[in-house]
Amino acid sequence: MAKLLLGKEVNASINEEIKAKVEKLKAQDITPALGIIRIGEREDDIAYEKSAAKRCETLGVAYEKFLLPADVKEEEVLKTISQVNKNDKIHGVLLFRPLPKHLNEDRIVNALAVEKDVDGITDLSMAGVFMGKDMGYAPCTPSACMKVLEHYGIDCTGKKVVVIGRSLVVGKPAAMMLLKKNATVTVCHTRTVDMPSVVKEADIVVVAAGKAGVIDGNYLREGQIVIDVGINVNEEGKLCGDVNFEEAEKIVDAITPVPRGVGGVTTSILLEHVVDAAIVQNR
Ligand SMILES: Nc1nc(=O)c2c([nH]1)NC[C@@H]1CN(c3ccc(C(=O)N[C@@H](CCC(=O)O)C(=O)O)cc3)C=[N+]21
Fold this sequence. Notes:
single chain; globular; histidine biosynthesis; THF_DH/CycHdrlase; methylenetetrahydrofolate dehydrogenase (NADP+) activity; EC 3.5.4.9; methionine biosynthesis
């Protein structure tokens, strides 16, 4: 049976740091605050929103929600973003993605002030990740994957790492971050030929396929470490990952479960970025 890599343990250390920073800010009469912009009612957005709000409450971070209907006009979204950009009481912004199809995601995302882009979605923040420069904030989900590996003492140097998924939200930035940690990285996607044999070659598998349970026992072998980034809501309304957990845990050495894995760490990183943004903006 695989060892479980639990988010809770990783969070404990991050949360201590966040609390200390929040206390320091509060001593200067500054309350760090997150702006949450949600368009429509996607279940995974709402799941993240609830977790983020709860964590804000626990850590003494304020938040304000900006809820827009799924059929909102682009100008309305741009107006909301300009409003949060100007509001000095809001230090970081979480804009859920993907956006409804009728909106120009590129234009909307890049309207966000880079110093408030705590989920690293603007082109400039993303460029920082790809060039290995300290520019803006890295996206929270791939950062959470790296944090889990680091916390459990899993060194990437020289390891074969397969990333499944090539999205800009997770797959591509995760590949760059792994490369920076000296891994030999392969990125698989829907056009990859014979994916099971490619994935079996990996020492570490980072799964961001975006589909519930698609990575089953046929892709895995013993000795592997599996990081499951997937957050899917199944028919019963429960969270599940992109890995078929029941099959995987019988085969691999270690795995992050869903829930209780990467998701909670993503939320911690988000809060850490908001608090850091509040510090930088009040210098
Ligand atoms: N720009 C953008 N960035 C995102 O990172 C992003 C997004 N849009 N759109 C939606 C998806 C979904 N997502 C979730 C993260 C955590 C939980 C979650 O439930 N976290 C729990 C723990 C769950 C667990 O234990 O695995 C918690 O923080 O306590 C859910 C969903 C982020 N996403």
